[in-house]
Amino acid sequence: MKILVINCGSSSLKFQLIDSDSEAVICKGLCERIGIDGSQIVYTPEGKDKVTKVTPMPDHNRAIELVIEALTNAEDGVVKLEEIGAVGHRIVHGGEKFTKSVVINDEVIKAIEDVSDLAPLHNPANLIGIRACQKVMPSVPMVAVFDTAFHQTMPEEAYLYGLHYSYYEKYGIRRYGFHGTSHSYVSKRAAEVLGKDPSELKMIVCHLGNGASVSAVNGGKCVDTSMGLTPLEGLIMGTRTGDIDPSVVEFIMKKENASVAEVTNILNKKSGVFGLSDELSSDFRDLQAGYESGHKGAKRAVDAFVYRVVKYIGAYTAAMGGVDAIAFTAGVGENSGFVRGLICNRLGFIGATLDDEANKVHGEDKIISGADSKVKLLVIPTNEELAIARDTYALCK
Ligand code: AMP
After folding, report:
1. Residue 238 has what pLDDT?
2. Residues whose CB falls within 8 Å of the CB of residue 203, separated by 6 or more in sequence, listed in order
3. Looking at residue 239, what is its pLDDT?
4. Domain spanning 2-146: which CATH class is it, in words?
5. Catalytic: 49?
6. Is 238 in the pocket of ligand 1 (CB under 6 A)?
7. Which residues of the chain carry a pLDDT beneath 70?
8. How far is the CA of 281 from the centre of ligand 1 (A)?
9. What are the residue boundaries of the structural domains of the chain, listed by start?
10. pTM as predicted
11. Is residue 234 in contact with ligand 1, taking CB distance under 6 Å?
12. Alpha helices in 9-154 (DSSP H)
C-alpha cells in the first residue's frame, strides 16, 4: 500500500509517500510559506532530481492540491491518485485522550480540537491538514499519530508538577512530553540492534536536534521524559531555554517592561545554545567550529547543553534503578561525534566507555560503546515518517 505521511505546520507542510511493503520513500517534499508571499513546493521523486515550483499557496487546501499534483502528474509523478491507500497525519498533542494512533473520524477530530489549547500553534495546523486531505481524498482512510502518545505510560509521580492538584484536575496541567514517535521508534530499533526484546532493557533515548528531549524507557514503556506541558521544558535546545525557574518570566517582564508574549518569545526563540553563544548560532556545526577556534560563547553554550544532557541521564538512571543502553538520535545525536563524545566521556559513573573510532559514525545504526562498557551506547537515526507510515498501515491494511 502507498501511504502518504503529512506533517502540517502553520505555514509549512512536509510530506512523504512511503511504500508499506518495501518501506521505501517514493517521494518526499515540503510546501513552504503557505499563506505568505513567495510560497513554493519542493519535492524529490525517488531516483530523480529535486523539483522546485514557486507558486501561490493562499491556504493549506491549495498546498495539499499541489502535493497531490506533484505525486500524480504525468511528467514526474510517482503514483495514480487511487493508489494512495491511506494518509498518516502527525499530530502534536493528543492530551490524555490518545495513548496510541487512531483512525480519524469526526469524534477524533473533535477530541483533537478539544486539546488544542495545550498546543495552540500546532494542533489547529494539524487539523487544517486533515481537513484539506479529506477534501481532496474523501474516501481515503486517515490515521492520527500523536507526538505525546508514547509518553502516556508515564506514572503519575513523573507526570505531575508540584503544583496545586486542582490545576491538573481543572485544566490538565501536567507533563505530557513530545517527540514520542521518535522515542518509540528509536527505543525499539535500539533493542533490535542489540538483539534484545525491549521488555529486557532499561534504556535512555537522547533525541538531540534543534528541539531536544530525553526519555527513560523501561521494558519498552516510557516512564519519564524531559519535555512537559509544552516542548519548552527539559534540555537546553537550539533556541529554547529548557528548564528554568518560572519566576524568571516575571523578573524579565519587570526589568524590560515586556509582555508575557514577549518573554515567551524570548524563552522559545532567543535562548538555548543560540542565546548562550552570544547569538553565534543554534546549529551545532557552527558551535563546534566556534568551540574549536576558541569562541567563548560557543564553549559556554556547548558545555551547558552537554551538562544538562548528562544531568538528565543521571536522573533517569536513578529513576529506573539502572540503565542498560543509551541511544542518540536526531540531527545532533546522529551526526555530531563531537557532542556525543563530550556527553559520553562524562558517563564513567555508570561504567560507560566510548569507542572513539565507532563514534565517528554519521547517520547510521551503530554501537559506539567500548568493549568494556557496562552500558551500551548507540547511534540510531530516527525516522518519524516511517513510524507514522507503519502505524497507518497497521490500522488501515
Ligand atoms: P533536527 O531538529 O533533528 O533536524 O536537527 C537539526 C540540528 O542538527 C541542526 O540545527 C544542527 O544543530 C544539527 N546537525 C545537523 N547535522 C549536523 C552535523 N553534521 N554535525 C553537527 N550537528 C548537526
Report:
1. 96
2. 187, 190, 191, 216, 217, 218, 323, 324, 325, 326, 327
3. 96
4. alpha beta
5. no
6. yes
7. none
8. 12
9. 2-146, 196-379
10. 0.95
11. no
12. 60-72, 106-114, 123-136
